[in-house]
Write a sequence for this structure.
């Protein structure tokens, strides 16, 4: 045994034993353990295999920076890969396993990679497999495509479950005056001081326990602290990581709600994604200890110094019996004493010449001493060391653990998210946050302040800064200076020998060695951003939390520059990984996007409608009779509309109430055609252009009174047109006295189309003789009431080209209206028709919709040029004839017939000349249908020069996506009843 | 997340709003010549720094707002209703 549980140590609950499984073997731990501490307590030392070389790896830290103990937790649909064992709380029944290894992390065939490692330097795969010389000189990726699959299998991390995620996630929102990130001594001091001044404080802590680095102190009581904070009125959020700071002091945070529970309540989400809007943020995120790059510095048993202290005092686990500590700074000495007191033999290697510390006699202190190489394969047998004065003579110390401390790196990540560049502090060999101009204060070791007393003081100073934001001015407290060690740190990033090849890891996560960094430099990579991408240094889940600075120092050395000259890569959110499930929250399945239904939705379904999504709306698609297919159904429906009568839900059209003395002026300015003289009780079809002269939307406006209009828009443009009218009235035409209100939800509408539609209507309205050709001519509007007295609006308007009406009623009465209409329509052998038949009918008439008015089309292109008034100015009138928009070869609206009437075509077909089938051709087909009336397929679309140019010329409809070509001819888009006799009947 | 102080609703997330465009554009009269419209529509400054822009409180009070925002830091200097009479009312309210 080399790591073991110690009596009387730790903050674990020894009364509560938890069973768990590691690689199919059963173990025990205690409540309060992390998975890593429980594995160490059971002396499980190999817990992972490295990314590229499959080297055995153990627990290397005690927190989020972990890059050795990455494990897979759970099974089946709950299999979660790349979990840091150091932050995974132990629970009863936890089932974890090693990853990136076969058959197991303890014995892994992939380990052979380690012996081939000199072939696997940075960029190896790309150099070797992308354009394999000499066969593929300059050819690219052929061989890579083959090898990539094999490489991806061999190199990598854990495997995610392929099953749907069974857990639920939540989005949550909060507000506060001051948000404190981190509950170490500095964060606690700040939070308490601010709460004492009656401000609303949220304290966020990623750990399950409060205290930050105090948790690695023997006598610290986290629960007591928690009670104290809550009594001060501070809102404490533990198990919550602030992963990013965004504009206006908004923080993104991830709360792990059930990841520590063996049987979570089914009502609880697994995680919550918080958006917290603070007015001031205090960053007390702490600092992370760095390792040192030297040969075999990744062997299981190699760890940061502070981690070892943390395991001892928090979890009661002594991580080694015979421990060598290698350092360049003062932070390790207290740990050395405590490890010694706990029963380990401790040897300190300090690279510095002089240090001043009181140590028990039993602790060996070697000054001027550097670690050179760890001996052993799956466990540590000893360490070779050098005197700084004599790099030729090595000395071997027998040990079972090597702890490293190459200095500390303040966690500047969160502040960097705000674009604040970290500044190099040479005296303390670390980056500290640069000047911040927002309401963000950094306190404690995140600012490079090392001593606990100073950290507390900085917490008070930060609290004062925060309170200044709220106009609370206290006696000024200045921040303690950066640093605080009694003996200065000396740079120690790498120990190398030119005589022996070494495997010295800079970044454990992706197996990046010191040699890889130098290779990158030799190959011409000088920018740190390029170095990162070439070597993958600082990538994957730890994002270089431990290794980045070492990489920078090596690059600086190669370039003969200083670290600040080389600079650092930009930290971006998230600080630690955020699961996609949490980002998605409840927006899955049915809630993936909002669902809009019309007031007669249920009525439609009850009457056999198959529904289709149109934007967010559910609309009736077709109403199949027994065994009917979609095309059987819509052809029947369209035929019946032309023969007798059909009823269709058109509620999804946008509806806008326009009211006020200048209502007419507004309508007249936004439509291309004249509206100024539209009489009360009449409607008009209108086209709206954008400022740049392109068609925006079409619709109708009905004049209901002297100062009142009812506008309909297309379904797709309803929201856009509403915003557009508001923009015009509030920003450009502020003198117009007119109000616009969206009433899309207030009115339900149905189209009643076909030769018998008038008869149907008369059976439904209060006065059965009211609807006549004289009383309600084409484009007439009638405000009347139904048989039962319900007020309704009727307009005589036709999309199908038949005698047709639309009837609108207050939404709550939609079912009643439909019942009445349908009862009557059945007497005339009528039908209900859906969107597919509606489309067929309008294509036969050459009426355009969004498929045609796609934002590229002018009013002339759409064949509606006659609707553009020359007698008035309106939005787009100045621009609609500009240069390119009035060119001769513009594509204009036409109809298309197949030459062979048995053939069918699809929307999207490209229209080409017979001997020139390529590129964009001369036009395109935008909408197609089978025409029941004509008995074959028809389409509308656009062709350069229009009907005049291509009349009687056979063209080719090319559909390369479906590998199809067919002969077509161009016809007028008005394929049925071009004079409109039926409409006016 | 940019937070915008809507003069009617109070401070809200930018996700409630829709970005409009350059608020400094003076649109020509409808009968102005094509050249003036071309200038207003197509010739825009790409400002680095404070810029006046319009935002629509689409999922709120539906006011169009004139916002002074730094394109570098997203700092918002001022927010007011575009419509002068609404601006007068909301100004007195807050």
């Amino acid at each position: 045994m080399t790591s073991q549980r110690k009596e009387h140590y730790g903050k674990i609950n020894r009364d509560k034993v938890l069973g768990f499984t590691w690689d199919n073997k059963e173990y025990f731990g205690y409540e309060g353990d992390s998975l890593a501490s429980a594995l160490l307590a059971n002396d499980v030392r190999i817990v992972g295999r490295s990314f590229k070389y499959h080297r055995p790896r153990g627990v290397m830290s005690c927190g989020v920076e972990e890059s050795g103990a990455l494990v897979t937790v759970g099974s089946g649909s709950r299999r979660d890969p790349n979990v840091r064992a150091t932050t995974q709380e132990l629970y009863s029944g936890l089932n974890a396993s090693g990853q990136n290894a076969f058959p197991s992390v303890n014995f892994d065939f992939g380990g052979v990679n380690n012996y081939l490692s000199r072939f696997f330097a940075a960029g190896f795969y790309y150099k070797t497999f992308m354009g394999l010389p000499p066969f593929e000189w300059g050819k690219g990726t052929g061989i890579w495509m083959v090898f990539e699959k094999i490489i991806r299998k061999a190199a990598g991390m854990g495997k995610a479950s392929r099953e749907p995620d069974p857990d639920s996630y939540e989005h949550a929102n909060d507000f506060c005056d001051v948000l404190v990130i981190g509950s170490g001594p500095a964060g606690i001091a700040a939070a308490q001081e601010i709460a004492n001044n009656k401000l609303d404080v949220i304290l966020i802590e990623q750990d399950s326990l409060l205290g930050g680095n105090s948790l690695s102190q023997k006598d610290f009581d986290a629960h007591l602290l928690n009670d104290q904070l809550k009594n001060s009125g501070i809102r404490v959020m533990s198990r919550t990581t602030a992963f990013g700071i965004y504009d206006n002091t908004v923080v993104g945070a991830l709360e792990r709600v059930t990841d520590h529970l063996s049987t979570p309540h089914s009502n609880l989400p697994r995680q919550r994604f918080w958006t917290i809007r603070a007015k001031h943020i205090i960053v007390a995120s702490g600092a992370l200890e760095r390792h040192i790059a030297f040969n075999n510095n990744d062997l299981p048993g190699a760890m940061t110094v502070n981690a070892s202290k943390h395991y001892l005092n928090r979890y009661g686990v002594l991580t080694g019996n015979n421990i060598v500590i290698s350092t360049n700074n003062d932070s390790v000495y207290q740990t050395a004493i405590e490890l010694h007191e706990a029963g380990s033999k401790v040897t300190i290697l300090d690279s510095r010449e002089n240090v001043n510390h009181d140590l028990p006699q039993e602790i060996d202190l070697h000054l001027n001493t550097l670690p050179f190489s760890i001996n052993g394969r799956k466990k540590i047998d000893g360490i070779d060391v050098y005197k700084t004065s004599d790099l030729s003579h090595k000395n071997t110390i027998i040990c079972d653990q090597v702890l490293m401390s190459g200095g500390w790196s303040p966690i500047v990540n969160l502040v960097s998210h705000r674009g604040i560049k970290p500044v190099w502090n040479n005296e303390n060999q670390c980056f500290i946050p640069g000047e911040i101009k927002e309401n963000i204060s950094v306190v404690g070791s995140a600012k490079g302040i090392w001593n606990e007393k100073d950290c507390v003081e900085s917490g008070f100073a930060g609290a004062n800064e925060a309170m200044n934001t709220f106009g609370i001015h206290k006696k000024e407290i200045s921040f303690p200076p950066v640093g605080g060690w009694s003996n200065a740190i000396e740079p120690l990033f790498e120990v190398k020998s030119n005589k022996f090849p070494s495997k010295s890891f800079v970044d454990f996560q992706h197996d990046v060695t010191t040699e890889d960094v130098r290779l990158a430099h030799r190959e011409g990579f000088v920018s740190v951003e390029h170095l990162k991408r070439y070597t993958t240094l600082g990538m994957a889940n730890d994002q270089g939390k431990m290794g980045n600075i070492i990489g920078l120092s090596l690059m600086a050395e190669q370039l003969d520059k200083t670290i600040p000259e080389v600079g650092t890569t930009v930290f971006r959110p998230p600080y630690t990984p955020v699961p996609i499930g949490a980002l998605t929250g409840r927006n899955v399945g049915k809630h993936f996007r909002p669902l809009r239904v019309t007031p007669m939705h249920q009525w439609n379904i009850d009457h056999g409608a198959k529904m289709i999504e149109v934007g967010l709306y559910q609309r009736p698609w077709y109403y199949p009779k027994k065994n009917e297919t979609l095309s059987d159904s819509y052809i029947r429906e369209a035929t019946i509309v032309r023969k007798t009568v059909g009823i269709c839900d058109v509620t999804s059209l946008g509806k806008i109430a326009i009211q006020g003395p200048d209502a007419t002026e507004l309508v007249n300015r936004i439509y291309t055609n004249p509206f100024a003289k539209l009489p009360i009780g009449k409607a008009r079809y209108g086209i709206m252009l954008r400022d740049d002269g392109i068609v925006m939307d079409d619709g109708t406006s009905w004049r209901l009174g002297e100062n009142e209009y009812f506008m309909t828009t297309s379904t797709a443009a309803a929201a856009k047109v509403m915003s557009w009218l508001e923009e015009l009235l509030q920003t450009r035409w502020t003198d117009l006295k007119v109000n616009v209100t969206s009433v899309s939800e207030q009115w339900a509408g149905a189209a009643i189309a076909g030769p018998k539609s008038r008869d149907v209507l008369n059976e439904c309205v209060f006065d059965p003789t009211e609807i006549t050709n004289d009383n309600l001519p084409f484009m007439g509007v009638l405000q009347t009431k139904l048989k039962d007295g319900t007020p309704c609006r009727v307009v005589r308007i036709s999309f199908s080209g038949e005698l047709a009406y639309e009837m609108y009623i207050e939404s709550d009465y939609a079912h009643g209206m439909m019942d009445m209409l349908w009862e009557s329509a059945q007497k005339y052998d009528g039908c209900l028709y859906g969107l597919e038949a509606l489309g067929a009918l309008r294509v036969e008439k050459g009426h355009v919709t969004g498929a045609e008015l796609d934002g590229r089309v002018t009013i002339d292109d759409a064949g509606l040029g006659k609707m553009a008034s020359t007698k008035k100015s309106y939005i787009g009138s100045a621009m609609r004839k500009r240069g390119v928009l009035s060119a001769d070869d513009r594509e204009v609206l036409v109809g298309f017939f197949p030459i062979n009437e048995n053939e069918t075509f699809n929307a999207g077909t490209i229209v080409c000349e017979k001997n020139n089938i390529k590129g964009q051709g001369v036009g395109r087909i935008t909408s197609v249908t089978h025409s029941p009336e004509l008995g074959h397929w028809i389409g509308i679309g656009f062709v350069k020069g229009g009907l005049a140019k291509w009349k009687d010329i056979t063209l080719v409809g090319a559909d390369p996506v479906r590998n199809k070509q067919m002969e077509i001819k161009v016809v007028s888009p008005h394929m049925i009843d071009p004079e409109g006799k039926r409409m006016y009947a | 997340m940019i937070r915008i102080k809507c003069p009617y609703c109070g401070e809200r997330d930018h996700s409630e709003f829709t970005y409009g465009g350059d608020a400094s554009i003076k649109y020509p009269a409808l009968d102005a010549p094509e050249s003036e419209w071309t200038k207003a529509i197509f010739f825009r400054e790409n400002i680095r720094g404070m810029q006046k822009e319009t935002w629509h409180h689409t999922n709120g009070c539906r006011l169009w707002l004139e916002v002074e925002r730094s394109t570098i830091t997203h700092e918002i200097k001022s927010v007011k209703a575009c419509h002068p009479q609404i601006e007068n009312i909301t100004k007195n309210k807050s």
Remarks:
- The beta strands of chain B are 3-6, 10-13, 18-22, 50-56, 64-70, 76-81.
- Residues 3-28+36-93 of chain B form a domain with the Folate-binding fold fold (CATH 3.30.2270.10).
- The first strand of chain B starts at residue 3 and ends at 6.
